[in-house]
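=== Discrete structure encoding ===
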Amino acid sequence: MSTHQELTGNTEGLKASHTKRLLASYRRRVHPRELVSAELARHLSELSRELGRQLGVLINRRGEIEHVFCGDARQIFLPDIGRARAGQSRLRGLRLVHTHLKDEPLDRDDLTDLVLLRLDAVAAIITRSDGLPGRVHLGTLLPFNPKGELHRVETFDDGTSALEHDIGEALVALEQEMSHAAPGRAVGTEGRAILVSAFTGPRGPADDSMTELRELCRTAGVEILDVVMQARKEIDPRTLVGEGKLQDILLRSMALDADLLVFDRNLQPSQARHIADATALKILDRTQLILDIFARRAQSADGKLQVELAQLKYRLPRLVGQDDSLSRLAGGIGGRGPGETKLEIDRRRVRDRITNLEQRIERLSTDRQTRRRARGKTGVPVVSIVGYTNAGKSTLLNALTNSTVLAEDKLFATLDPTSRRLRFPRDREVVITDTVGFIRDLPKDLVNAFRATLEELEEADLLLHVVDASDTRHEQQAEAVERILSTLDVEKTPRLIVFNKADRAPDASALAHDRNGVAVSALTRAGFDELLARCEQILWRQGKVQSPGADEGPFQPPAHRA
């Protein structure tokens, strides 16, 4: 029996005698196999009719009443018993029994509570005009199924047959079926996610952004179960999508056995907390997902330091003692509810670590500047490849230099800069560098953290801006790259736009002609002759090196080994 017996809910206006009779409900017993005893059903029904309010109890599997609560004429007000976690095969161990003053079935709130709280059952007893219990509406959960059905609802016209319903045996069978029906996890996946987008503008850009979020999830090893997109007049400041829509999403997560919600927007710390209050699912936003991918992709010491700095700067304002809602796929910052003193210690440690990382990255930046100055004395021009993530930059570098730099059909396959030498005819050569791919709405802290790496671009003699000509969003992607380049000191650096993947884009040549660029296929090496000729023309026309063979005749492209 509950050791702390109290009456909760809407208790305003209750007489002392009514409160006493309601609290006496705690002394009643229900057989573990019964849904509810006839005595308790009559007790609740009579009091409910007398008060003109819905009344309810939560009964555990031992037949003890753990909570008694009072509502109004239309609804009940449950005590806070906490959310259940998604993916559980076990139920809460509590069943909700409450009264309805009108002959009405289980409502949306009843069924939402059943699912989100993972109750054993929800029963509504219809209170007749004479105060006796009438028909009973019973709701129970269903095991995971392909149709995504969450619950079963039965109606017992004869209240007596409902009271005799063997709830104990049914619950044992249900939990066994749930454990067998739970969906298997794909090997290598980091979570089963529902993607959520809330937008206020046109649908088209929102669809493009969601397509990109799908690719980010694929790169991060997240299994996508469903996508929810909501057009709104304005973004909800608390939950992004609004309380009602969030409830629908949580119900959907239960139906699909999801354990992740990934938002296609950067959540404010307060939004993350409010969403976390409504669910036990792990919550990620767009930036957190990108940070996680970067953390896995970083290979060099420089890259790892820069990623850690970006992560700590992003987490610091979210380091609170209430939740671990924004957490990496591999785990969160810490557990729930640390004390204030510990919280302040954590914050101070994070700030100290940020300062330390910034100093180390600054020293590395100085070292790189020294190497760049030494390289500059040789007179060898530097060509830097820039572009949107997954535009084919690494594949282009490999094809030009016969290298084997990692090139995958995933976002951010390259994180650490890679340099190779490319030899031209007439004893000319350049250093060609592949850099981290850009993406729209790249987190500011991430750009700042990688500034030491991006400084390489400021020393380049030529920027090759690689664009995926086969992507319908190539214009928006090129604009996103240019916005990031505008924050660097490269406005005077010549740049050549390279429309890649021409083998999959019939209009690549027309695009290149319109933008004074070059159309190539890094896969088939088509267009390389023109690309190299344009590079040589721009570099040596700028006088980057003194060429003793300026009159050696027309340019001949370098031979490529098979």
